[in-house]
Amino acid sequence: HLHIENISMTDVFISNTRHQLIHINQFDNHLENNNHIYLFLITEQGSLTGKYRFHLNPEPTWNGEFIANNLDLSFLTLQKNDVVNFTLLTHGAYAQDQTVYLKVNDIKGSFGQYPILGNMQFTYRNDQLSIPSSNISIGSTTASFSGYANKEWHIQWQLHCPSVAMFLKNASGDISASGSMTNDRMHPVIKAE
């Protein structure tokens, strides 16, 4: 039997061979009344806070809500001042009927000089993944996708990028495409028009 009520860390560095990816100034994870576990993470730029709850009886279940505030994206984009804000809701159960629900609301932030906006939602239940209409935009570039996957993929997607130079400095032109992802789960086929 293991009982942990509080975990705290300061000055944690995560890096690869070329770049420091994340500098965590402070991390706190503590248990409070009603079995709620509170998470508090401060990075060099931004924070992630939230609470989540686990139940083990009669079956393992969880639910949680997390809020990202100016979370640093530079470890992905390698550009300073790229940040994102969002609210993440999740709940699920691990039993014969495995269920995972994940919803990312009100995605807002910046990628260089371009704003980021979006919403995403995923549900996994009885060996089926469902994706209601989800979308993300970076500046005037938009991407949307929806569908489901069980033994086969049934995903529809659209992409509109009026300026490829936004992502690739020395490139020019635009991309507008729509398509699907089909076939069995282990061998997806992506089609574009």
Notes on the protein architecture:
By secondary structure, this protein is mostly beta strands. The protein is 2% helix and 66% strand. It is built from one helix and 13 strands; from the N terminus they run βββββαββββββββ. The chain has a 13-stranded antiparallel beta sheet. The N and C termini lie far apart (56 Å). The mean pLDDT is 81.
List strands and helices in order, with pairings.
Layout: E1 6-15, E2 20-31, E3 36-43, E4 47-55, E5 61-72, H1 74-77, E6 83-93, E7 99-111, E8 114-125, E9 128-138, E10 141-149, E11 153-161, E12 175-182, E13 189-192
Antiparallel strand pairs: 1-2, 2-3, 3-4, 4-5, 5-6, 6-7, 7-8, 8-9, 9-10, 10-11, 11-12, 12-13
Give a concise summary.
The protein is mainly beta and 193 residues long.
Q: Find the count of extended strands (DSSP E, 2+ residues).
A: 13
Q: How are helices and strands ordered from N to C?
A: EEEEEHEEEEEEEE
Share of residues in helices: under 10%
Please, what is the average pLDDT?
81
Structural class: mainly beta
Rg, Cα atoms, Å? 20 Å
Write out the strand line-up for the largest beta sheet, numbering strands in chain order: 1-2-3-4-5-6-7-8-9-10-11-12-13
**Which oligomeric state applies?**
single chain
Described by strand count, sense and barrel closure, the largest sheet is: 13 strands, antiparallel
How much of the sequence lies in strands comes to over 45%
Molecular shape: flat
Low-confidence stretches: none
- Distance between the terminal alpha carbons, to the nearest Å? 56 Å
Number of helices: 1
